[in-house]
Amino acid sequence: MLELRPGCECCDKDLPPDAGDAMICTFECTFCANCVETVLKGVCPNCGGNFSSRPVRPAALLQKYPASTKRVFKAEGCVPRADAA
């Protein structure tokens, strides 16, 4: 089950479970669409993979299957992977 992490790893923007601009890679690294497009150019800085829109968990299921509260944030900022072409 997806963690639904609460924020962008790059800019720390809040990304609640119903955020339409949350993007994830295959390892669930989570970023806002703006950072994915403008800073990361579509390549995850952690694994080198691409991004997909994070699905929205229906509100009725959030009580039984809550979103994560653990924030992952790169205080030093996001830097695209050197091997990204």
Q: Can you give a write-up of this model?
A:
InterPro entries: DUF1272. This is DUF1272 domain-containing protein. It holds the Pfam family DUF1272. This protein is largely without helices or strands and 85 residues long. The chain has a domain at 1-55: Herpes Virus-1 (2-Layer Sandwich). It is built from 2 helices and 3 strands, in the order E-E-H-E-H. It has a 3-stranded antiparallel beta sheet with strand order 2-1-3. A hairpin with a 5-residue loop joins strand 1 and strand 2. It is elongated, with a radius of gyration of 13 Å.
Give the topology.
Layout: E1 22-24, E2 30-32, H1 33-38, E3 52-53, H2 59-62
Antiparallel strand pairs: 1-2, 1-3
List keywords for this structure.
single chain, little secondary structure, Herpes Virus-1, three-stranded antiparallel β-sheet, 3 strands, 12% helix, elongated
In short:
With 85 residues, this protein is low in regular secondary structure. It has 2 helices and 3 strands; from the N terminus they run E-E-H-E-H. A hairpin with a 5-residue loop joins strand 1 (22-24) and strand 2.
